[in-house]
Design brief:
Helix content is 24%, strand content 16%. The chain is of the alpha/beta class and 434 residues long. 46% of the residues are buried.
């Protein structure tokens, strides 16, 4: 792993907007210069910056908004509520990613003909995950601009990056401007880990050739995809990024006074988000990863496994920043959940992880150690997903092949160090923050 560490209501005087920092220059993307706010102790997200501009770049426009529940300002007010207050802005379409918008309140969406709409925002709802992996043609007609504001997890498995890229693809075909409001990488922007996806293993959970923990913001990833022609067939979008002010790559998300909003239903805390870097891989095995319990991505177990035996082996590895505790539990499925947890309603034995030091904890080394040990200790019971989903998640066949070789678990992490170093060098020209 490579390592590079309060807001009160505040009105920025108009003259400050004439003291702009020079923006990063790109061939196909625009980064809007932001005011020099270094005198202020707070972090301003892209939404906060646009709000200080009174949303004037959107005046007179009919827009589509790609967002979810995470798009709040530093006071916790949602983007859609802020836009609704402006009669000069018409939100026509709300594009929804995986897991939807305000997941616990989806029942408020209504049907108008065969289309969903939101009666609060008076906008049609278009899901761009599942049946529609990108905006359908009808949803683009009449739009002047697409606005993107969503909090990514900083982990490659998240599908938000793939959906964002599909939106850029369609926007390029319609020659439609896209404005992206940037937000932090919640897991710091100076730490990278894991192999870069090999092209044969690309998927919606590994859409671009980046490491599992990529250390980039959504704005930086959008610029990288746009500049490199990764959108599709060397297409480029008319992309403008409104960056943050005062965010540094060494910051965790909780450095900001912005409220924590879960980016996915199972990621309820920033520590769960950190553990997800590694424990998302367990979905490619027949281990339960804590889903169906109150500790998703912080637990691993199975009915055929001995938590005591596994914990003993893990403790011998001296993994940094984490402690292991033996646990017995029964995964349960909640009525509102679409997926059934592995080993649902069965008594499982396993281990809980407790992160004692987030700055030292290595989620990939920890999770791959659990997977490799389970494979070695229980070769008849342990199984990979029958579709070899592990290769798609890991981005490489390396983990599965390594496990079959019977080598010690701590021999694996050095194998992707070259990928991390090369990607860190490659990404420098797309970084917006120090």
């Amino acid at each position: 792993m490579i390592r590079e560490n309060h807001i009160r209501p505040h009105i920025i005087n108009a003259f400050l907007w004439f003291s702009l920092l020079a923006g990063q220059q790109f061939n196909h993307s625009i980064v809007l210069p932001v005011p020099d706010l270094s005198f202020h102790p707070s972090i301003f997200y892209g939404l906060d910056v646009l709000e200080q501009m009174d949303f004037k770049p959107l005046y007179g426009k009919t827009i589509g908004v790609f967002t979810n529940q995470t798009a709040v300002n530093r006071k916790g007010t949602h983007l859609l509520d802020l836009l609704k207050a402006h009669p000069k802005i018409d939100v026509e379409i709300i594009f929804l990613p995986q897991y939807g918008l305000f997941a616990d309140k989806n029942e408020r969406f209504k049907m108008q003909g065969d289309q969903k709409y939101d009666p609060i925002y008076k906008a049609r709802i278009v899901e761009v995950f599942g049946r529609n992996v990108k905006p359908p043609e009808w949803s683009m007609r009449g739009l002047d601009l697409i606005l993107i504001d969503i909090q990514d997890t900083g982990v490659r498995y998240s599908t938000y990056v793939a959906t964002m890229t599909k939106i850029l693809e369609v926007a390029s075909e319609w020659n439609m401007p896209v404005m992206l409001l940037d937000r932090p990488n919640p897991l710091r922007g100076d730490r990278l880990d894991g192999p870069v996806v090999r092209p044969q293993f690309q998927s919606f959970e590994g859409y671009h050739l980046v490491p599992i923990r990529h250390g980039m913001t959504l704005g930086e990833l959008a610029i990288m995809a746009n500049e490199m022609g990764w959108i599709k067939d060397l297409k480029r979008a008319n992309l403008t990024v409104i960056p943050m002010a005062n965010w540094k790559r060494s910051y965790w998300l909780d450095k900001s006074e912005h409220p924590w909003i879960s980016p996915q239903p199972k990621i309820q805390t920033i520590r769960t988000n950190l553990a997800y870097v590694g424990f998302g891989l367990i979905e490619g095995t027949n281990l339960n990863d804590g889903r169906g319990t109150d500790r998703p991505y912080m637990r691993a177990g199975a009915p055929w496994l001995s938590g005591h035996h596994l914990a003993e082996k893990l403790i011998l590895l001296n993994l940094p920043g984490v402690e292991f505790r033996v646990v017995e539990y029964v995964p349960r499925k909640k009525d509102e959940e679409k997926t059934v947890p592995m080993h649902v309603n069965k008594v499982c034995s396993g281990v809980d992880i407790f992160i004692t030091d987030p700055n030292r904890f290595d989620p990939l080394a920890t999770a791959t150690a659990i997977i490799i040990l389970a494979n070695q200790l229980y070769p008849r019971e342990f199984q990979w997903d029958e579709l070899n989903r592990i290769d798609m998640l890991f981005g490489h066949s390396q983990l599965r092949v390594f496990a079959a070789q019977g080598k010690p678990a701590n021999y694996l992490p050095p194998l992707w160090l070259k990928d991390v170093l090369k990607f860190n060098e490659f990404r420098q020209k797309f970084l917006l923050y120090q």
